[in-house]
Amino acid sequence: MNKAIARLAIYAGSFDPPTLGHLDLIERASALFSDVIVGIGRHATRTPLFSVEERLDLVSRVSSHLPNVVVEAFDGLLIDYCKAKKARVIVRGLRAATDFEYELQIAHANADLGPEVDTVFLPTRTMNGFISASLVREIASHGGDASRYAPRLVCEALVKKFDR
Q1: pLDDT digits (tens, 9 = 90+) for 61-75
Q2: Is the pTM of this model over 0.85?
Q3: What span, in angstroms and rounded, lies between the C-alpha atoms of 14 and 39?
């Protein structure tokens, strides 16, 4: 019997690239909620390593074993995306105390803009607490082995991306 709460949750981020920490949060959110959208934000002011299409593909492939997870890209404010999707929950991961202050500010702003949407914080597992997409990019950009921090197919995509 599925014990997930019958509710749509959105876990949003840039996922550039998706890491094992991201995957852990996607899996945990999928166990807690009946439906999860992994929302990949498009930001006109940022220059990501992977295109939106590449990130959609990578996140979709690493989460393909989770039948209640879909991956989509979105523009604009996350709270507006939640309203458009009729999602009641935003899932955010916390790695350290410093994440909490920033995430709490964002949660307060989202609650002000959309009081019908709640933010749920999930602390990362200890083994993933230091993993970030920027760490994975840095290791891969120097030809290092990022396989302890990112799924195999992401590591393969990184090798191709940095192939000189």
Answers
A1: 999 999 999 999 999
A2: yes
A3: 8
